[in-house]
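Deviation from plan, reported transparently: N-(aminocarbonyl)-beta-alanine complex.
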Amino acid sequence: MAFDTILTNGLIVTASDILPSGTEIGITAGVITALGLALPHGPSTKILDARGAYITPGGIDSHVHLAQKNSPTGDGWESGTRSAAAGGTTTVIAFASQERGDESLVPVVEEYLKLADGQSYVDYGVHCIVTNPTAKILDSEFAWLFEQGVTSVKLYMTYEHMRVPDRGVLEILFKCRELGMTTMIHAESHDMISFIIEGLERKGNTEPYFHALARPRIAEDEASYRAISLAELADAPILIVHMSSEVAVNHVREAQGRLLPVHAETCPHYLFLLSEEIKGKEHDHFSGAKHVCSPPLRHRMEDLEGLWRGVANGTFTTWSSDHAPSKYDHPGGKKLGLVDGIPRFSKIPNGLPGVETRMALLFGQTEACLPASEAKLSLSRFVQLTASNAAKLYGLSGRKGSIAPGFDADLVVWYPGVEGKRVIEQGKMHHDMDYTPFEGVEVGNWPRWTMLRGEIVWSDDEGGVVGKKGIGEFLKRGRGEVVMGRTGNVPRGMLGDEREYWR
Ligand code: URP
Ligand code: ZN
Ligand code: ZN
Ligand code: ZN
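Because the crystal trials were delayed, the predicted structure below was used instead.
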């Protein structure tokens, strides 16, 4: 059997190892079919020379907002996934989103999948945001979601129009536990935040910077601890999304120490940017609106250091973009959040672009780009955070997230040495946004090639995005694995598993 493609001269990085140099990747029909030394070529085998560079699994960005009704100037499927491919991401998981008034999740998911159909440059899965977990939805539609391959839900503890009270969170957690689904939680205290926002507005403190004051760390710390407590009561796996606070991360670490299935996600903006950015330019404070996201960028270096520790020590399961942008300059010159010329931070859409810059920003902090003494994480940890953990947690095991026989040939081939050094600039991005929050940030490398199922879809040195719109396939996901915490051996109280008395 001849391979369609052999990738040679690369240094292959997996979640546990860097394979011996000389190891080649043989690809047949889009799938990795062999790893070995001096693989045999046939007459039609295409040889791709990685020239001594690292090869990592194609990125899985498990937190991407595309075509969201509540951000009409955000990226759609086409531009968002084009941007993903250009940055080394071969799978995105985006959000179908229930609005409060939607009585059924069925049309929510079906209509969302229709938007994606024929538009995507990369493979994609879908999570479902649940804002109103009625008895009908829990009793019949969660099982339907699972059958569709939508095996994870996201809930919000904050935002007036989306938040689910603790009681509803519990109902969802117990249902997800029963079905083997994963619950993602946006953890910020709604009551603290709404109380502060009211006070800030009353006092006329409404410029973008006050967004950071409106959502203090304690609001994230408290809600994260509460989310962990609810998960402990339900004994159900959770992932706390986009964590930004050192104290909240310590709550997670403590829970993991007790073998609770508590996962955490963080995003590049919390590790590369400080809240200073939200002050905007000297004569244009409103430009700080470009950096408004929730939780907000933090103030203290301690938070950044705490987050980097979590990246290195395994507390974080995933490194996601939370790509959730809105355009800064709107058609017609109307800036959202500027109401009759007066800045109103509470009206600025939350979220930043970042699907394209996610991989390179983290790769630049590994020993591939920095002296070992300065590297913030190992290359294997990079692979876990950007691909393999998300594959396991979200039910893509065996197909995505690893470089091994049987897996899809989704790969990133980096540049050797310093050839890949780049400065991030809006002009080089492939999203449909008018800014990048990382403007001017230098990264030690950039994906030279992104390969999706054996085909080059991004070629930095020859043509840019060369994959075709619509080649991305919908991924019907299965049951997630518990990446953190125990895999059995449930602790028992005085009466055994006491839940049996009330569930
Ligand atoms: O600021 C953010 N993160 N907005 C996007 C929606 C979300 O909460 O993930
Ligand atoms: Zn969120
Ligand atoms: Zn001002
Ligand atoms: Zn988000």
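The longest helix spans residues 217-234. We consider this an acceptable substitute for the interim report.
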